[in-house]
Design a protein that fits this description.
The complex is a heterotrimer of chains A (293), B (316) and C (539). Chain A is mostly helical and 293 residues long. Chain A is built from 16 helices and no strands. Chain A folds into two domains: 48 residues, no CATH class; 231 residues, MetI-like (MetI-like fold, Orthogonal Bundle). With 316 residues, chain B is mainly α. In chain B, 66% of the residues lie in helices and 1% in strands. Chain B is built from 16 helices and two strands. Chain B has a two-stranded antiparallel ribbon. In chain B, helix 7 packs across helix 10 and helix 8 runs parallel beside helix 13. Chain C is α+β, with helices and mostly antiparallel strands and 539 residues long. Chain C folds into two domains: 238 residues, Periplasmic binding protein-like II (D-Maltodextrin-Binding Protein, domain 2, 3-Layer(aba) Sandwich), CATH 3.40.190.10; 243 residues, 3-Layer(aba) Sandwich (D-Maltodextrin-Binding Protein, domain 2), CATH 3.40.190.10. Chain C has 23 helices and 17 strands. In chain C, the strands form seven sheets. A four-stranded mixed beta sheet of chain C has the order 9-12-8-13. A three-stranded antiparallel beta sheet of chain C has the order 4-6-5. Chain C has a two-stranded parallel sheet with strand order 1-2. The chains are: A mainly alpha (293), B mainly alpha (316), C alpha+beta (539). The interface between A and B is large, with 103 and 103 residues.
C-alpha cells in the first residue's frame, strides 16, 4: 500500500487542490473575459465564461495612455533598486540578530519589533522625508519602508535554523563574519531570500500611496498611479450635502469594470511571468549536508 | 536539527554587557545600518504620537497644539458603537486566526505531498494569484456570486444540496462573519503558504533519505520531520498574527459590509472611517491607533511569553 | 544627534507657516500655484493654454503672473493636500472638497480670510455676478443665505460660487419603458401619489413585466424607496453619511426621528414583506462599487422597474443634447437595445402634497477654492483681479475653460460646447488649469451653458422640486458643518441605518420606533437638535 502510487489520502489531497485551483481559475477566466468585453456586458452581471462582443478597446485604452511606459519604467526602477538593497540590508540585520551571543540581543529585537506597533503615522514620516530633501526622488519610494520588521524577524528565524557548526569551521579558517554571511549564509538561504524578495517585489510593484504623497513630478509616477488615473477618472461621486453634481464629473469619460479588469492583467502579468523563477528556489529542497563537506 | 539547541560558547560574552560590542565589532558594523534606519524613519516620527493627547491644529504644529489629556480617547470610546466595534474586531480576527492561520500550513503540507512536479508548480502558481486582486474588485465579484437573487452559490445550494431558501451571505448577521473568513482564506491561502513552502524546502533532504531507508511512510515523514521543522516558523507567524489581531481587515470589511450587518461586521477601522470621514481628525485617528496598538503589543508580549514556555521559541 | 536636528527642523517649519509672505517684485511675474480639479497632469511640453492665458492677462489686464498648475489625483485629493498643509508646502490655491472640509480648513487655520470690501474692491465684476444670481428666479433666497455661509463672522473664507446647471434636481425618477408598455401604463398614468406608487411596484413584482414567466422582478430598490421620504416632506440620508433637518414652524427637526419617518418605514416594511423590494436593497444592485456610480445596475438590467439613482443629465436624450445622450442613457441603450426606452416620472406626492428629493442649488460649498493662509494679501488681491479678468473677458474665459475653438472645442447651436478631446488630453494642454482659482466646476459667467435646456417646460414639468420652504440646502450645509458636536452625526446615522433596515426587513417591529428615537436622542441627537436650533435662532 505504502509504495503504491494511489492512496485515498492522496486522492483527497489532489481533489482538494484541484477544487481550490478551479475556483481561482474560474474567477480569473471571468475577469479575462470581462477585460475583453465592452462596458455594458459588465453591467448585465453574471459569470462570463467566454468574451461577449469581444473587443480590445479596454487594452487599447490602457496601452494607449501616454504615461504607461513611463510608469513601467519607474516601477521597474524602484522595484529593482529597492528590492536588491532592502533584501541585502534586511538579511544582514537578521543575520546579526540570529546570533545568540550578540550583546543585548533581546533589546535589539524588541527595538525593531516595537516599530511594528507604534508609529507616528503619515504626517511625521512625511516631515522627515521632506527635511531629508527626498521629496520627488526615487529614494522617497524606497527609504521610508526600507527595512520591514516583519521580514527581518522571519529571516532571522530562518538563519537561526542553520547549524552553527558550518560557521565555526570557517571562523577557524580566519574568515570574518561579513564574509561568512556573504559566502556561506546567503547561498544556504536561497528559499527565504527568494520568499522575502518576492514580497518586496510585489510590495513595490503594487504600492501607490507613497508615490501620491511624496512624488509630484509626473515623470516619476509609477505604473500603479497611471492605472489608478485611468480607472478613477470619473468613477468618483461628488455627493456633498449641498447635493450638486459636478458637471465636470458628468462630462468625464467613465471607467468600466472591463477597463479595471484589463488593468489587473496589465499590472499582474509581469509578476506572473517572474514567478516561476522565484519558485525554482523553493520547489526543490536544499542539501545542507553536501555544503558542509 | 534547526539549530535551536546549539549554543555557542561565545554566548558568555553577553553577560559582560557592552564589552561584547567591541568583541563583535564586525557584527555591530553590519547591524548599524538597521539601527540608523529605524531611528530616522521609525523612532523620530514616533514623536507624532503626542497628538493623540492634543487637539492638533496644523497652524500650531505638533508641539504647539493644546494638550487635552485623554479627551480624544474618551470622545471615541464613549459611544456604544465603539465598544461593539472592538468586540467585532476581536471576534472576526479570532475567527480568522482560528481558521485562516492553519489554512496555508495545511496547503503547504498538502503541496509537499504532491509528487507530480508540474501539477505542484501549477497549483502553487494558481493559488497565489488571488493575492493580486484588490478587495474592491473581489467585492464586486463576491456580491454577484453570493447574491440571494441570482448568485451562483445559492444556485448550487438549491440545485445540488436542496436548500430552498436563498441565503443572503453579505446581508445576514448569521453568515456575514463566516463569509469574511472564507473569502479571506480564499484570497490569501496560497500567498501565505509560500513562506511555509520555503521553510520546507530549507529542510535538509538527507533527513528524508535516512528516514525512507529506515522504512518510514510518507505520513511518518510529514509527522516527524516536516512538521517539527516548521514549528519555529509557525510560532513566529502565530505571534506576528496575534500582533495584528486588532486589524480585522479594513479593505475587506469596508468593501463587503453594509448597514444590515453593522451588528456583526462593524470593526474599529470602519467605525473610525465613518467617524472621521473627510475630516482632518488626526488626533482622533492617532488615539484610536494607539489604543489598538497598545492592546496588540500586550497580546504579542503575552503570546511570546507563552510560546517560549511551551516550545522554547519566540520572537525574543 | 541627528534626530534632534530633524525634530528642531520639523518644529521650526511648522511655526513658520503663515509668516512667510511671498516677495512681490514689480517686474518679476508673481508665481501662483493652483491645484485644480483635473483628470491628469499638465504636460509641460504640450501646455499651450497656460502661457496664452498668462499673456492675455499681462497684455489686456496688466496682471503679471506665472501660473503653475499642480495636478493632484482626485480620489486622494484631501489626503495629499492635507499632508502638504502639514508640511507647509501646499499649493497657493486648492479645493475644499466638501462643506465639512471647508469648515475643517478654517478650523485648522490653514486658509485665508478676507473682508467683503476687499473682495468687492478687487473683483467687482465677480461680486456683481454673484449678487446678480437672483436672476435665477426663486433661488434668490439661497444666494443671500449662501453669502452668510461663505463667511465666518465678518470675514469671507470662500467665494460664493455659481453653477448655472446646479439648479437641476439632483435625482430623477426613471422608469423602464418596456415594463410600462407591457403593463399598459402610459406616461400620464405614472404614479403621482404614494398609493399609486406602491400599487405600480406591486404590478412590477407580480405581473411579470419582463415577460419571461419567472418571478424574478422587483418594484424598486433603495433610491426609489427614498422618494417616499420626500412625499412625507423629509430629506433622508438613509444608508449614507448624511442626515437632514426640516423646518417645522420655525423649529429645526431632524428628519430621521419624525413621526412621518415612522410612517414611511411602515410603508416600506409592508412593501418588503410583500416582496416588492429587493432583499439586497441595503447594498449592491444600484450603485455598484467599481463602476460608474449613477448607473442603476438593477434598473438597467431589468431587476427593478424604477430607479432614482441618477440625475436627468445622466439620462439626457439624444434629441435634446445633440450628442450621444447622457452617460446612463448610453448604458441603458447598450444593454437593452438601441430602441429601448425609459421614461422620466413624477415624484409621488404624500398626504400633504409634498414630493421630491433634495434640490441642488446654483450656489454650493463643495469643490470651492480656498486660499493658503501662507500667502500675502497682495497675492490674494492679485488672484481676485485674475478672477475679475475671467469674468469680464469672454475670450480669456473660454480659453481657460475650453481651450482654442476648433482645436479643443466646438460650439453647439444651443450655446453649449462640444469638446474635441478627452479630458485627460485637455488637461495635458492646460485646459481647466486656471479654473480652480475660483473652484472646480464653477462658472464665472453663463457662457457655455444651455440654460434653456434646464428651463425647458416639457422637462421641467416632470421634475418636481422639493418644496423650498420645507428644505433649504443652506441650512443643511451650515447645520452639518458648524455645530460644535457635529462629530456625533456618524454615530446617529449608524443607529438610524441599523434600526431602519431591521424594521423594513421585519427583524424589528415598528412598535420599537420609540425606543429607537430614545436611543437616537441619548446618543447625541438631543444635543445636536438643541445646538441646531440655537444656531438657527441666532441667524
Amino acid at each position: 500500500m505504502v509504495h503504491s502510487k494511489f492512496s485515498v489520502g492522496k486522492a483527497i489531497i489532489y481533489a482538494m487542490l484541484v477544487l481550490l485551483s478551479l475556483t481561482i481559475v474560474i474567477a480569473f477566466w471571468h475577469l479575462m473575459n470581462l477585460s475583453l468585453s465592452p462596458s455594458h456586458i459588465a453591467t448585465k452581471g453574471g459569470l462570463l465564461l467566454y468574451p461577449k462582443e469581444a473587443t480590445l478597446d479596454n487594452y487599447a485604452r490602457v496601452i494607449g495612455n501616454r504615461y504607461i511606459w513611463l510608469g513601467y519604467k519607474n516601477t521597474l526602477i524602484r522595484t529593482v533598486i529597492g528590492t536588491v538593497f532592502q533584501l541585502f540590508f534586511t538579511a544582514m540585520g537578521a543575520y546579526v540578530l540570529s546570533k545568540r551571543f550578540f550583546p543585548h540581543r533581546t533589546f535589539w529585537t524588541l527595538f525593531i519589533v516595537f516599530t511594528m506597533f507604534f508609529s507616528g503615522g503619515l504626517i511625521p514620516t512625511y516631515l522627515v522625508v521632506r527635511d531629508l530633501g527626498l521629496l520627488n526622488t526615487y529614494a522617497s519610494m524606497i527609504l521610508p519602508g526600507f527595512i520591514s520588521a516583519y521580514n527581518l524577524v522571519i529571516m532571522r528565524n530562518f538563519f537561526q535554523s542553520l547549524p552553527e557548526e558550518i560557521e565555526e569551521s570557517c571562523l577557524i579558517d580566519g574568515a570574518g563574519r561579513f564574509r561568512i554571511f556573504l559566502q556561506i549564509i546567503l547561498p544556504l538561504s536561497k528559499p527565504i531570500l527568494a520568499t522575502v524578495a518576492l514580497w518586496l517585489v510585489v510590495g513595490h510593484w503594487n504600492s501607490w500611496f507613497d508615490v501620491l504623497i511624496y512624488i509630484s513630478d509626473d515623470t516619476k509616477f509609477t505604473l500603479q498611479i497611471v492605472l489608478r488615473r485611468i480607472i478613477i477618472t470619473g468613477s468618483k461621486e461628488i455627493l456633498d450635502t449641498s447635493a450638486a453634481a459636478s458637471a465636470a464629473e458628468m462630462e468625464s469619460v467613465v471607467s468600466s469594470e472591463g477597463l479595471k479588469a484589463a488593468c489587473i492583467f496589465v499590472t499582474t502579468l509581469p509578476i506572473l511571468c517572474a514567478y516561476p523563477f522565484v519558485q525554482k528556489f523553493f520547489v526543490k529542497g536544499i542539501m545542507i549536508g553536501s555544503l558542509k563537506g | 536539527m534547526n539549530g535551536q539547541g546549539v549554543y555557542s560558547p561565545r554566548r558568555k560574552s553577553n553577560l559582560h554587557g557592552f564589552a561584547g560590542y567591541r568583541k563583535h565589532y564586525e557584527l555591530v558594523l553590519m547591524f548599524l545600518p538597521v539601527v540608523v534606519y529605524f531611528v530616522i524613519f521609525k523612532y523620530i516620527p514616533m514623536a507624532g504620537i503626542v497628538i493623540a493627547f492634543k487637539d492638533y491644529k496644523i497652524k500650531y504644529g505638533m508641539f504647539g497644539s493644546e494638550w487635552v489629556g485623554l479627551a480624544n480617547f474618551t470622545k471615541a470610546f464613549a459611544t456604544p458603537t465603539f465598544a461593539r466595534s472592538v468586540t467585532n474586531t476581536l471576534t472576526i480576527s479570532g475567527l480568522k486566526l482560528l481558521f485562516g492561520f492553519p489554512a496555508p500550513i495545511i496547503l503547504a503540507l498538502m503541496l509537499n505531498e504532491v509528487s507530480h512536479v508540474r501539477f505542484k508548480k501549477t497549483v502553487q502558481t494558481i493559488t497565489y494569484l488571488p493575492h493580486f486582486l484588490s478587495w474592491v474588485v473581489l467585492a464586486g465579484m463576491f456580491q454577484q456570486l453570493l447574491s440571494p437573487n441570482n448568485g451562483a452559490v445559492n444556485a448550487v445550494l438549491r440545485d445540488v444540496f436542496g436548500v430552498q431558501k436563498s441565503i443572503y451571505f453579505l446581508g445576514d448577521n448569521h453568515y456575514f462573519r463566516g463569509t469574511l473568513v472564507v473569502t479571506d482564506i480564499w484570497k490569501n491561502v496560497g500567498w501565505s503558504s509560500i513562506l511555509y513552502l520555503a521553510t520546507i524546502s530549507g529542510i535538509d533532504q538527507a533527513l528524508y533519505e535516512a528516514a525512507t531507508v529506515d522504512g518510514a511512510t510518507r505520513w511518518q515523514c510529514t509527522r516527524y520531520i516536516t512538521i517539527p521543522s516548521l514549528v519555529s516558523t509557525i510560532v513566529i507567524m502565530l505571534i506576528l498574527n496575534v500582533g495584528s489581531i486588532m486589524d480585522a481587515g479594513f479593505d475587506q470589511v469596508f468593501n463587503l459590509y453594509n448597514s444590515a450587518v453593522y451588528k456583526t461586521g462593524d470593526i474599529i477601522d470602519t467605525y473610525v472611517y465613518r467617524y472621521g470621514m473627510g475630516d482632518m481628525k488626526y488626533s482622533l485617528a492617532t488615539a484610536v491607533g494607539l489604543f489598538k496598538n497598545v492592546i496588540a503589543f500586550i497580546l504579542v508580549v503575552g503570546t511570546n511569553l507563552i510560546t517560549r514556555r511551551i516550545s522554547g521559541e519566540g520572537i525574543w | 544627534m541627528k534626530g534632534t536636528r530633524i525634530l528642531a527642523m520639523v518644529l521650526a517649519v511648522m511655526l513658520v507657516i503663515g509668516l512667510v509672505p511671498a516677495a512681490l517684485a514689480d517686474d518679476e511675474p508673481v508665481k501662483i500655484s493652483v491645484a485644480s480639479y483635473m483628470f491628469g497632469p499638465v504636460d509641460q511640453e504640450k501646455d499651450v493654454i497656460t502661457p496664452m492665458v498668462e499673456k492675455l492677462l499681462l497684455e489686456r489686464h496688466g496682471i503679471n503672473v506665472d501660473i503653475e498648475v499642480v495636478y493632484i489625483e482626485q480620489a486622494n485629493y484631501a489626503d495629499i493636500v492635507n499632508t502638504r498643509l502639514n508640511g507647509g508646502n501646499a499649493p497657493d490655491v486648492f479645493l475644499a472638497q466638501s462643506a465639512t472640509m471647508l469648515n475643517t480648513y478654517y478650523d485648522q487655520g490653514v486658509i485665508k480670510t478676507w473682508s467683503v470690501d476687499f473682495f468687492r474692491e478687487n473683483a467687482p465684476a465677480v461680486y456683481e455676478f454673484i449678487t446678480g444670481g437672483a436672476a435665477y428666479g426663486d433661488l434668490a433666497g439661497d444666494v443671500e443665505a449662501w453669502w452668510k455661509a461663505a463667511m465666518k463672522g465678518d470675514e469671507m473664507i470662500v467665494i460664493p460660487s455659481f453653477k448655472p446647471d446646479g439648479s437641476m434636481p439632483y435625482k430623477t425618477m426613471i422608469y423602464r419603458g418596456d415594463w410600462l408598455e407591457k403593463l399598459g401604463v402610459t406616461e400620464d398614468q405614472l404614479p403621482k401619489t404614494v398609493d399609486e406608487f406602491v400599487a405600480l411596484m406591486r404590478r412590477f413584482t407580480n405581473e411579470d413585466p419582463d415577460g419571461n414567466n419567472k418571478a424574478d422582478t422587483y418594484g424598486c430598490s433603495i433610491t426609489a424607496m427614498k422618494a417616499l421620504f420626500g412625499a412625507y416632506g423629509l430629506g433622508t440620508g438613509f444608508t449614507g453619511s448624511t442626515s437632514y433637518w426640516v423646518n417645522r414652524d420655525g423649529v429645526l427637526v431632524n428628519s430621521d426621528v419624525t413621526p412621518e419617518a415612522r410612517e414611511v418605514i411602515g410603508i416600506l416594511a409592508q412593501m418588503y414583506a410583500d416582496g416588492l423590494i429587493d432583499p439586497e436593497f441595503v447594498a449592491g444592485k444600484e450603485s455598484v462599487e467599481g463602476s460608474y456610480w449613477a448607473i442603476s445596475h438593477g434598473m438597467v438590467t431589468g431587476l427593478y422597474g424604477v430607479s432614482a439613482n441618477a440625475s436627468i443629465d445622466h439620462y439626457r436624450l439624444k434629441e435634446v443634447m445633440g450628442d450621444d445622450g447622457g452617460r446612463c442613457a448610453q448604458e441603458y441603450w447598450a444593454v437593452n437595445g438601441e430602441d429601448s426606452t425609459f421614461v422620466y416620472g413624477p415624484w409621488p406626492a404624500g398626504p400633504n402634497g409634498d414630493y421630491g428629493w433634495m434640490v441642488g442649488t446654483p450656489v454650493a460649498v463643495s469643490e470651492s477654492a480656498v486660499y493658503n493662509a501662507q500667502m500675502s494679501d497682495e497675492k490674494l488681491a492679485l488672484i481676485f483681479k485674475i478672477l475679475d479678468a475671467f469674468a469680464t473677458d469672454d475670450e480669456l474665459y473660454m480659453l481657460a475653460f475650453a481651450g482654442i475653438e476648433g482645436v479643443h472645442y466646438e460650439k453647439n447651436e444651443n450655446g453649449t460646447i462640444k469638446r474635441l478631446m478627452g479630458n485627460e488630453d485637455l488637461n495635458a494642454v492646460g485646459v481647466w488649469g486656471c479654473r480652480s482659482l475660483y473652484g472646480a466646476d464653477r462658472a464665472f459667467s453663463t457662457l457655455g451653458y444651455d440654460l434653456a435646456f434646464y428651463k425647458d417646460v416639457s422637462i421641467a414639468n416632470r421634475l418636481n422640486w422639493f418644496k423650498k420652504d420645507q428644505y433649504n440646502s443652506y441650512i443643511q450645509d451650515a447645520v452639518t458643518v458648524t455645530l460644535p458636536s457635529n462629530d456625533l452625526f456618524a454615530e446617529l446615522n449608524t443607529i438610524r441605518d441599523e434600526a431602519w433596515v431591521a424594521m423594513i426587513r421585519g427583524e424589528k417591529s415598528l412598535d420599537e420606533w420609540d425606543d429607537y428615537v430614545q436611543t437616537w436622542l441619548d446618543a447625541g441627537g438631543q444635543t445636536l437638535t438643541d445646538e441646531a436650533n440655537e444656531w438657527y435662532a441666532g441667524n
